[in-house]
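Supplementary Methods. Inverse-folding protocol.

Structures were first reduced to a discrete structure-token string of length 290. This string, shown here, constituted the complete conditioning input.
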């Protein structure tokens, strides 16, 4: 039998143990929360790869010319001819194995009800462009209409822009060792022409122009598509405010295949092993029996 003093010591010991466990659990929860916060930065947190704001703030601001360039990709019309890629390579002298723009595709359905979806991709020309923030040599900047471009007189090929692009839209040239990306063919747009890929598209799936002009082709096309099928953007959770909109089923289906931070467009996108994506659910009872 315990003496009164022994019983009191036992109670104190048990209380201290419970207090210790509560304190430890609290620290563990705080640690887990901090780890989650570090692994999934919120919009209020700065990426460790970003330069100080005073270094990129001016380059993030486009000329005040009243223009707001953007893209609309109507995937309902795209049939995967890759003409946009070919014209882009020819216009910008892009070497084999590298891409400024690329068309991703995926097969959906089961025989005989099958379809192939296509998703043309390129730089989103984000309003809050992470590549501009991360560029250590100050080469990435905004041009007319918000076009994100590279100044090749100062690009050092550091590659941080590739590490932070949420769309895999930048690659390092294997010869020049400099960053390459879509620049809206500004050598054409500055002379009143469209980017080379737009007039090349035989299905008129690509639209480019001034979003501030409600009478521009892109504004009219987007308005019509929004009424019929709606407009979507990719990876909006990244909060980069991309300037590219899509319509159709392809974006939701193919988005998981789009490169992420630290990756670039590559020939693997055309591998026959990518022709069929994740098996679809049976469309009917007869399909399930087959």
């Amino acid at each position: 039998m315990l003496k009164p003093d022994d019983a009191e010591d036992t109670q104190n010991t048990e209380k201290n143990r419970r207090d210790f466990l509560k304190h430890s659990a609290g620290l563990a929860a705080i640690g887990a929360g901090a780890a989650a916060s570090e692994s999934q930065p919120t919009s209020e947190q700065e990426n460790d790869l970003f330069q100080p704001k005073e270094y990129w703030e001016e380059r993030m601001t486009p000329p005040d010319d009243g223009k707001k360039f953007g893209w609309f990709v109507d995937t309902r019309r795209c049939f995967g001819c890759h003409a946009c890629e070919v014209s882009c390579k020819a216009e910008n002298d892009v070497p084999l194995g590298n891409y400024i723009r690329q068309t991703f595709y995926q097969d959906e359905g089961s025989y005989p009800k099958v379809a192939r979806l296509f998703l043309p991709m390129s730089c989103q020309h984000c309003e809050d462009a992470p590549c501009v923030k991360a560029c250590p040599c100050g080469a990435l900047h905004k041009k007319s209409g918000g076009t994100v471009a590279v100044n090749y007189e100062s690009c050092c090929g550091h590659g941080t822009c590739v590490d932070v692009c949420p769309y895999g839209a930048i690659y390092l040239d294997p010869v020049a060792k400099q960053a390459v990306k879509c620049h809206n063919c500004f050598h054409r747009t500055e002379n009143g022409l469209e980017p080379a890929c737009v007039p090349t598209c035989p299905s008129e799936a690509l639209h480019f122009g001034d979003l501030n002009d409600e009478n521009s082709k892109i504004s009219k096309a987007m308005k019509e598509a929004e009424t019929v099928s709606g407009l979507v953007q990719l990876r909006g959770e990244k909060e980069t405010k991309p300037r590219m909109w899509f319509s159709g089923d392809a974006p939701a289906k193919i988005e998981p295949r789009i490169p992420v931070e630290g990756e670039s467009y590559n020939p693997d996108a055309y591998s026959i092993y990518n022709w069929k994506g994740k098996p679809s659910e049976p469309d009917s009872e007869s399909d399930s029996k087959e």
